[in-house]
Automatic annotation (TrEMBL):
Protein name per Swiss-Prot or TrEMBL: NAD(P)-dependent dehydrogenase (Short-subunit alcohol dehydrogenase family)
InterPro entries linked: KR_dom, NAD(P)-bd_dom_sf, Sc_DH/Rdtase_CS, SDR_fam
Species this protein is from: Roseibium marinum
Classification of source organism: Bacteria, Pseudomonadati, Pseudomonadota, Alphaproteobacteria, Hyphomicrobiales
PANTHER family from the UniProt entry: DEHYDROGENASES, SHORT CHAIN (PTHR24321), ESTRADIOL 17-BETA-DEHYDROGENASE 8-RELATED (PTHR24321:SF8)
Coiled coil (UniProt feature): none
Length: 263
């Protein structure tokens, strides 16, 4: 699955799944633009990836239209093209429904959903212009979640944002199909990122995750990166409007699985 000489923007790529995707893309030959608001981590990530290929960092709050416009302009100035966009930037705000603050709801939706819309629209406009000038179409990969379908009562804005992102994926895929531009999503299950690392020290929490994961393990960010690389490659040239759930079998599960005791 080669991305040789493709130009890819990955939002929220200073750490976690976004960084794993950026790393995989660089290893597959892409020129990667890391977009994030954490300048220190973003610059460090770009510096690390430059030892493997070509990467650069651009500060961008995806919920701010002018930041997104600058991200697209700087990428085009640096590389002259954008072939792939990965909308990975996302945040959470946990609270029970009756206690959830309006500002927290708005903040999560602005990054997770509005940010994906703004980035997709800005990049797609460039991609459409290129296609109309005889160039090759690009693709967009959205970072969804099993929580686009399955709900968590104390993560309402996150679940709502991912549900909306599922429909954004389908609607934009239909809108852009006539240009050959593909739009798909990846729906991770439990992945070992910083947010989940604490379960390693909490046997009860880890057991709960395992009981709903038929493969009986937590996924690695690199496994999500592999799915994103497939969707960004020509191997997925006839795939659009789809969400691939990489969840260790959780989505089909209608029961809990027995978890072996650890030695």
């Amino acid at each position: 699955m080669s991305l040789e000489n493709k130009v890819a923007i990955v939002t929220g790529a200073a750490r976690g799944i976004g960084l794993a995707i950026a790393r995989r893309f660089v290893m597959d030959g892409a020129k990667v633009v890391i977009a994030d608001v954490d300048d220190e981590a973003g610059e460090a990530a770009a510096g690390d990836l430059n030892s493997l290929g070509e990467a650069m960092y651009i500060h961008c709050n995806v919920a701010e239209r002018l930041d997104v416009r600058n991200l697209v302009a700087e990428t085009l100035n640096a590389h002259g093209d954008i072939n792939v966009l990965v909308n990975n930037a996302g945040i959470v705000a946990g609270a029970d429904f009756l206690d959830l603050e309006e500002d927290d709801f708005d903040r999560v939706l602005s990054i997770n959903l509005k940010g994906a819309f703004l980035c997709s629209q800005a990049v797609a406009r460039h991609m459409v212009e290129k296609v109309e000038s005889g160039g090759a179409p690009g693709c967009i990969v959205n970072m969804s979640s099993i929580n686009s379908v399955l709900a968590i009562p104390n993560q309402i804005p996150y679940c709502v944002s991912k549900g909306g992102l599922s429909q954004l994926t389908k609607a934009t895929a239909l809108s852009l199909a006539k240009y050959g531009i593909r739009v798909n999503a990846v729906g991770p299950g439990s992945i070992m990122t910083d947010m989940l690392a604490s379960v390693n020290d909490d046997p009860a929490a880890k057991n709960r995750i395992m009981s709903r994961t038929p493969m009986l393990r937590i996924g690695d960010p690199s496994e999500i990166a592999g799915v994103a690389a497939f969707l960004a490659s020509e191997d997925a040239s006839y795939v659009t409007g789809q969400t691939i759930f990489a969840d260790g079998g959780r989505m089909p599960l209608n029961y809990t699985v027995a978890v072996p005791d650890e030695d």
